[in-house]
Amino acid sequence: MIKTLIKSTRLSWASKNFNAYLLALTYAYFSGTLITNPFEILEGLLLVSVFWGALYSLNDLTDLEVDKKDHTKRNRAFIENKIDEKWILIFSSFLIVAVFIISLTTLDPPFTIILGLMLLNQLIYTLPPVRLKDTPFAPFTSTATNSVLRIASCCVLLGNVLLVPVSVYFFMYMAGMATYVMYKSKQISASIVGVIAGVSLIYVLYTGEMNIIQFAVAILPSFLAAIPLYLSVYIDKEKMTQIADILYHQVAMVFFLIVILIILF
Fold this sequence. Notes:
Layout (H helix, E strand, L loop, with lengths): L1 H7 L6 H17 L6 H25 L1 H4 L9 H4 L4 H22 L2 H18 L11 H4 L1 H15 L8 H18 L3 H20 L5 H20 L5 H28 L1
Helix pairs in contact: 2-9, 2-12, 2-13, 3-6, 3-7, 3-9, 7-9, 9-10, 10-11, 12-13
């Protein structure tokens, strides 16, 4: 049972958090911001990763019946192994409460506020009666909003939530939305949102609000992983999605962590 619960947290999906923290840290590095709290940054990264693990576990519980009908999700933890709902709720609630307690007692209040916004966004996305996941607003509240909040959680630990320019927040928002619609195999939406994300990327590079090194270390690995994800909209969805998953959630995650440690220490 414990093994199944841990699997439900999708540990490798912490790559999203590593990517967001790396992007924020590149802005601290190139702006000459002195990082005096490297261990707090790592603590924040760990807390956000554990927090999202708990939210993924809850998400799999609320989507269990729907996911059982989706062949591509046959390996989800609670589909492979049946667990009493109460244990999933206890497990997830314990992790969420523990993260909030540690955050409140060891980190600055704005970080905890960001965690609260993450929780609120996920609850209205997954739970009835709102459950935005089943509405046309789903792309605006899922990966898109969460990408912004992940970056902000690192920025507040660095002392300035606007350390990352608003234009870059917007680009990451659109990139997150593009990822979502690609995963949902929405061809027209994926192309439209992808173009908007591409134009916003060109803008931040052209204006100098993101330099080429930042692009190379924090954006390019994600972009390369997104190529098979985009192809999955048109061909062999399961295989292409699996390739994208390996590239981003495993290969890129190791790279992100190494660069984070180099910047911090």
